[in-house]
Amino acid sequence: MSLSGNPKKSLIIVMASLFVIGFVVAKIYYSNENKYVDPRVIPARELYSKYNNYAQENNFSAVFSLLDSIEYVYNNIPHYKTSYEIGVIYNNRAASYLTMAIHFADSSLSLDGVNILSKDSLLNLGKQNALTSIEFYNNWLAKFGEKDITEIESLVKSQFLQGVNAETDKDRAKFLATRMDEIENAKYETLRRLSVAYTNLGIVERHSGNLEEAVKLYSKALDLWERNLTAKNNINVLLGRPIEKGQVIHKFFPPDKEKK
User: Fold this and answer.
1) Rounded CA separation 200/230 (Å)
2) CA quadruple 108, 110, 116, 122: dihedral positive or negative?
């Protein structure tokens, strides 16, 4: 197997990986105008509205501060402490560290104004955060992935409703119903999130020189989500194959009827 790389193509592919996460987060977290979204997490969703701008500006200090604040919101609500939302936060961190490592490692990067971060240290931070996101995703899927909506509601109802500020029982039921819809959707979307996380791990291994391991990780990403063109084109670059193109909306949001 012949493995090679092209830095210019690599830049396009890695940034696509970052954009996948930001675009999916935007769609999931702050396009929902349903007034029965859990009011306790609205501050986190409002914070997420700034994420793409910071990422596109390569304002990494702001990105990490933002993600820390979002994680603080979720971790202060028992229902969300082990949720897929926490996995999303860690995978966003991973993508940011990888962008820093691959495109800005020669720029004396420092997040605290004191310590300079090397490419190897940034890759390692990316790897650690990608692995943590995978752990959250897998644990969440093990708990909810094979359960129907009735079983899920029986598992989460009591804990979720603790602390929900609602005037009537009918309102409480609507808040719960909205959360059940989110969880039902997440059973499928989290497989794609896992795919992106494994793609990020593949990027780490590729830029650490472990090319065969990178191909294995990209292949695993494709097993989870066959339309993950970021993973597919990373393999194509390494194997000297032509880059595949696809419509943006198909790359990021495959048709629901094709869910596994």
Assistant:
1) 10
2) negative
